[in-house]
Design goal:
The complex is a heterodimer of chains A (132) and B (547). Chain A has 132 residues and is of the alpha/beta class. Chain A has helices at 20-31, 45-54, 69-82, 101-107, 119-130; strands at residues 7-11, 35-38, 59-64, 89-94, 109-113. Chain A starts with 6 loop residues before the first strand and ends with a helix. The longest helix of chain B has 24 residues, at 393-416. Classes of the chains: A alpha/beta (132), B alpha/beta (547).
């Protein structure tokens, strides 16, 4: 199993400028064989969805540390669906309190990653998900 | 180090990992430490007395005996009313200075009604969109008697103007204002990310604030050059100090280009750092940085006034050194970091709350954080004599090592072409991202021990905090309602005139924008309007995205 041939968009929605996690995961996914695109900071869910479609990605990873994860995940899902791209897998990373995880999964996130997890575990989880 | 742990697919760690039985022999910055340091290893640099150039042992001859450090807890959330109540609570608990946390729309220059801002109003700080909100935020607080620090960068000049305006309205002379705006845009491009304008006009705005401050608010620090955020983003203690001093030198060069007198403005420069867990490295980082700054100002710029050579700094204890695994343990971490800050001679200290890795602190966790400082200040006895670790062979040796390593970092940046270039083309950003990966990999592999996270986990461990902080879900709606009311009731002609004057001043190089911004604030122009006006002249920074 590897991420060879998989295309992944790592995105920073909203105004939050904490991009360390996003960059660490982007670099690790690239090392694992994926084609990784990183949006840079301050992108709207609408912009992220459009890039995801234009770049024909298999997955989008949202990095959110501002506490606005519920709104931003829901809006990104909505934007992807509006573009008939609901089949793109969505992951979320950042400061996400445990009690919000179920809500995010219900909203459409297929994996939720926090700082306590190892880089390899995050990559493996994404790999496993994209091969199902 | 053998790693016997296995990962489950959801990323949680198995608890059965063999703990190391010996301490590591290298500091997190990579300095190899001898078993024992002998006097002959430190004989080349004998430290002077405290208060004497180059200030290795501190900037004051009497250390904390003259005055304890300022207890300054970063705080702010939701509406101005809620934050005002939290400030009064903290002051009641014995906090001695204010530190205002602003929400992301305010930091990035958007009004609360902007589509990009909508989900973030009042989340990570208080919304401060116009003068009316500042009047509420500081209601009942004596601005002439307390110092206020604002963690604000992209819109620092505007928030500083608003603080001057609110003082004007309260009848407090500007001369009496004390405090700091962070106002360090260079590090925003590298970490933290609340940049707005391109690098060069941003440097102009910073020069404007500093030049304005030294006759209008002579007790107010118009910049706090911050290494804290690049540190938290991934770099080492040595790099934190190196990048910060390099940024400081870049600001000095800009101010000199604007005709500033370095002897005068150097007194208004202050610094801000993280304190992480490696106790002696943190103490020596401050001793080394203080000495190197004084030497650089003397050798490169010929500064003579001792006050202008003094390296004054605040710190934050916590940040990424705090973990979500067994978060109660963070109280201990912050206590150790607090002691390192005092031993290093900090002028102001913010101790993070133990739940801050997760959320905005509750009143309970915020109180423990303040009490930590009071226990260190009044029970531990470490503030009794100046630089109590001075003269320790190890501390002097490590200080020397750190000084040499920090200088190498500055040399590397200068060899690359300077900070501005390193930031504009993304070189520094990429370097920090790589460092962050290295740091994380060391924790993942077990080379770095994080108690409760990668070692010493209980079989049945459930991470998380007992008490959740819940933001009032109506706060954002109330902010927007108040905002619209202010906008509907102000004198539109006065707003338009003030913004037009700002626009034409921005188009002229060398015109100081501070008086224009203060006029805008008095007219109740909003942060979003002032930023949009400046953007119309200068455009926006284009982030170099490099992987």
């Amino acid at each position: 199993m590897s991420l060879n041939g998989k295309r992944i968009l790592i995105a920073k929605p909203g105004l939050d400028g904490h991009d360390v996690g996003a960059k660490i995961i982007a670099l690790a996914l690239r090392d694992a064989g994926a084609d990784v695109i990183y949006t840079g900071l301050r992108r709207s869910p609408d912009y992220i969805a459009r890039v995801a479609v234009d770049e024909d990605v298999d997955a989008v990873g949202l990095s959110i540390l501002s506490g606005s994860h519920k709104e931003l995940v829901e809006e990104t899902v909505r934007c992807l669906e509006n573009l008939d791209a609901g089949d793109i897998h969505l992951f979320v990373g950042g400061t996400i309190p445990g009690e919000d995880h179920d809500d995010l999964r219900d909203a459409g996130a297929r994996g939720i990653f926090t700082a306590e997890m190892t880089i390899d575990a995050v990559v493996a989880a994404i790999e496993a998900d994209l091969h199902t | 180090m053998a790693d016997s742990s296995k990962q489950k697919i959801d990323g949680t760690l198995e608890p059965r990992r063999q703990p190391p039985t010996k301490p590591s022999t290298t500091t997190p910055s990579g300095i190899e430490v001898p078993v024992v340091v002998t006097p002959d290893m430190v004989s080349d640099r004998t430290p002077e007395m405290p208060g004497e150039y180059p200030f290795t042992r501190g900037i004051f001859p009497d250390g904390f005996r003259g005055r304890l450090w300022t207890i300054r807890q970063y705080s702010g959330f939701g509406t101005a009313e809620e934050s005002n109540a939290r400030y009064r609570f903290l002051l009641d608990q014995g906090q001695t200075g204010l530190s205002v946390a602003l929400d992301l729309p305010t930091q990035c220059g958007y009004d609360p009604t902007d589509p990009l801002a909508r989900t973030e109003v009042g989340k990570v700080g208080v919304s401060l969109s116009n003068l009316a909100e500042a009047e509420i935020l500081f209601d009942g607080i004596d601005l002439g008697g307390i110092s206020t620090s604002f963690t604000i960068n992209g819109t620092a000049s505007i928030i500083y103007a608003m603080y001057c305006a609110v003082a004007d309205k309260k009848g407090v002379p500007r001369q009496k204002l004390t405090g700091t705006i962070q106002n360090d845009i260079l590090k925003e491009y590298v970490a933290r990310g609340t940049w707005i304008f391109p690098v060069r006009p941003s440097m102009r705005l910073i020069a404007d604030t500093i030049l304005f401050s030294y006759d209008q608010t002579p007790r107010f620090n118009a910049i706090s050059i911050a290494g804290a955020h690049v540190r938290d983003a991934g770099c080492t203690a040595v790099e934190e100090m190196g990048y910060t001093l390099a940024n400081g030198l870049a600001y000095i060069d800009e101010l000199i280009r604007r005709g500033g007198d370095v002897e005068k403005f150097a007194r208004r420069l202050s610094f801000f750092f993280y304190v992480h867990m490696d106790f002696f490295e943190e103490v020596c980082k401050f001793r080394a940085g203080r000495r190197l700054w004084a030497k650089l100002l003397t050798e490169r710029y010929g500064v003579k006034d001792p006050k202008a050579l003094m390296f004054r700094f605040g710190v934050v204890c916590g940040g990424s050194s705090l973990v979500g695994a067994q978060p109660d343990n963070n109280v201990v971490r912050v206590g150790i970091e607090n002691m390192a800050a005092v031993m290093g001679g900090a002028q102001s200290i913010f101790t993070a709350a133990f739940d801050e890795a997760y959320q905005i602190p509750t009143e309970h966790s915020a109180e423990i954080a303040v009490r930590t400082q009071q226990i260190v200040a009044h029970e531990s006895g470490i503030a009794r004599t100046v630089d109590p670790l001075g003269g320790s062979h190890y501390v002097e040796w490590l200080t020397n090592q750190m000084e040499d390593e920090v200088m190498k970092v500055i040399d590397e940046i200068e060899a690359y072409g300077g900070v501005t270039k390193a930031v504009e083309d993304g070189w520094l950003q990429l370097k920090i991202a790589q460092r962050a990966t290295e740091r994380k990999r060391k924790v993942d592999s077990g080379e770095t021990v994080v108690v409760g996270q990668n070692y010493f986990r209980r079989e049945d461990q459930k991470d998380g905090v007992a008490e959740l902080f819940k933001l009032d879900p109506q706060a954002s709606a109330r902010v927007i309602e108040k905002f619209e009311k202010v906008r509907d009731n102000r004198n539109d002609g006065a707003v338009a005139a003030a913004l037009a004057a700002l626009e034409s001043a921005a188009a002229k190089n060398g015109e100081n924008l501070m008086p224009y911004l203060i006029d805008c604030c008095h007219a109740y122009a909003t942060v979003g309007e002032m930023v949009a006006t400046l953007k119309s002249q200068w455009g926006e920074f284009e982030e170099p995205v490099r992987l």
